[in-house]
Amino acid sequence: MAAPSFGLSARSTLAVLERGLTLYRRLWRASVFGSFVLPVLFLVSIGIGVGGHIGQVGGVSYLAWIVPGVMASTAFQMAVGECTYPILGDFKWTRGFHAMRATPVGVGDMVCGHLLYILIRVEIAVVVFLGVTALFGTLHSPWALVTPLVCALVTLAVAAPTMAFAASIDHDSYFALLFRFVMIPATLFSGVFFPVGQLPGPVRPLAYVSPLWHGVELNRAATLGAAPPWPAAAHLGYLLAFTAAGMAWALHAFGRRLQD
Amino acid sequence: MVTTWIAARISPGRVGAVIGRNVGALRSGPAYWLVLVSGFFEPLLYLLSIGVGVGALVGELPVGGRSLDYATFVAPAMLAVSAMSGALAETTYNFFFKMKYSKTFEAVLATPVRPLEVALGELGWAMVRGSVYTALFLVVMVALGLTSPLGALAAFPATVLVGLAFGAIGMAVSTLMRGWQDFDLMSTGQFALFLFSGTFSPVTDYPAPLQVLVQLTPLYHAVELVRAPAIGQAGWGLLPHILYLLAMMAVGLLFAARRLRRTLTV
């Protein structure tokens, strides 16, 4: 069959988004629990339990300190989750992308439509989470209002390359490796739970590579009203560059996969 | 009487054949070995991040009348969690797939193997797999000075019991699953247990009603049972935890066998 078109049009992209939302209507009950309740349970368990033994970090309560980190990592986890099995599944098991190829929808529409769908889901979760944490009294600055934008950027930076990875593999057991060697270490060592400065010098640059770290620091600067460790433009630039590279990879991987 | 009842129903050879089938199936997927081995890294990463990273913020923690280094407190809990999730990984996702999609158990039950033997064999295999992780984890704990070699030897059988109890319950739950979406609920429940079972901070940190609730859930008993020998505080007080986990295992196994018989044999 001919190579799939790389087209990108607003109408086709929105059609892909609509498909995602329609499918989500069947699943939302189970996911509400995961995306809203878990982060809150997390705050209660770690923030209050462990936080009670810690006291203050960087001049604020431990709970206030981890809230922006947990928020960014929620976006991170959702982005990875929505770009692994659902993407591979649409290539391999349900062949949803092959069905789209038979319509005017191009590869660009598929990638952008799916990204939009994830963005909507992440933003709903983040805004609810922000409201809950405001009730805990952990937001110290009106800049907290920009955290949904930071989370959107983290989502794009992570979702694009994860989609590309999912489109490039043949067997879902590679996801277990992605989770164990990339996602979990990134979550645990990106300054969500303890300052990256505590990491031994040689491994610290690994945290700087992780898009999550940049999101965490921007979020934290926003909710606490402090300056981030790097200039904000540097953090933002890194996330944007990561997104652009991920998108390019995703377009390439989708195009190749759909040639069969 | 119980032994004759069991002997009349179970043949070690047939249980062994179910385990053997799993060993043979290991070669089926690409990267399967790597996935299997990498399962060990997950609790280790948690230990390094929470135990060592957050531990540096916490300092010492008062536990049972003495002051414990935070990593020493958290490590045995991570070990118990690892025993739980190792066993569950095999007896939920894999078990469900074998039951519903690959029809493995229908094939197995077409031979002289009986439902209870299938359940025992699957649990046995989950144990082999989980025990490799926990043994490696204990070696790391000894190397980092988080427990003594003797404490590690004493904690190992505790982790085996934890794996058996959760593995059996996992199988029972899998026989009730309607589809993959139900697993989301299960993993959410598993994560909630992980957060509130005295893993990251002593249960006494919580308000009294929540403490009682936590003490009813299974992972709490698993964590207590593994932590005590690891920090050198084992005693008769552990008996209720042991009985709780044994009961879980028995109920899980019998229920799973019953459901397999009902749904897969005519």
Automatic annotation (TrEMBL), chain A:
Membrane topology label: Multi-pass membrane protein
One Gene Ontology molecular-function label: ABC-type transporter activity
Primary residence: membrane
UniProt entry tagged with the keyword Cell division: no
InterPro entries listed in its UniProt record: ABC2_TM, ABC2_TM_bact-type, ABC_2_transport, Nod_factor_ABC_transporter
Ranges annotated as spanning the membrane: 27-50, 62-88, 115-137, 143-167, 174-196, 236-254
GO cellular component, one term: ATP-binding cassette (ABC) transporter complex
Span of domain ABC transmembrane type-2: 30-257
One BP term from GO: response to antibiotic
Record key words, sorted: Antibiotic resistance, Cell membrane, Membrane, Transmembrane, Transmembrane helix, Transport
Domain of life of the native organism: Bacteria
Pfam families (UniProt xref): ABC2_membrane
Cell compartments where the protein resides: Cell membrane; Membrane
Family of this protein: Belongs to the ABC-2 integral membrane protein family.
Protein name from the UniProt record: Transport permease protein
Automatic annotation (TrEMBL), chain B:
GO terms for MF: ABC-type transporter activity
Subcellular location: Cell membrane; Membrane
Keyword Protein biosynthesis part of the UniProt annotation: no
Pfam family, one: ABC2_membrane_3
Membrane topology: Multi-pass membrane protein
Gene Ontology biological process terms from the UniProt entry: response to antibiotic
Keyword annotations from UniProtKB, A to Z: Antibiotic resistance, Cell membrane, Membrane, Transmembrane, Transmembrane helix, Transport
One cellular component (GO) term of this entry: ATP-binding cassette (ABC) transporter complex
Transmembrane segments: 31-58, 70-89, 123-146, 153-177, 238-257
UniProt-listed InterPro entries: ABC2_TM, ABC2_TM_bact-type, ABC_2_transport, Nod_factor_ABC_transporter
Organism domain of life: Bacteria
Domain ABC transmembrane type-2: 34-263
UniProt record similarity statement: Belongs to the ABC-2 integral membrane protein family.
Name of the protein in question: Transport permease protein
Organism whose genome encodes this protein: Sphaerisporangium krabiense
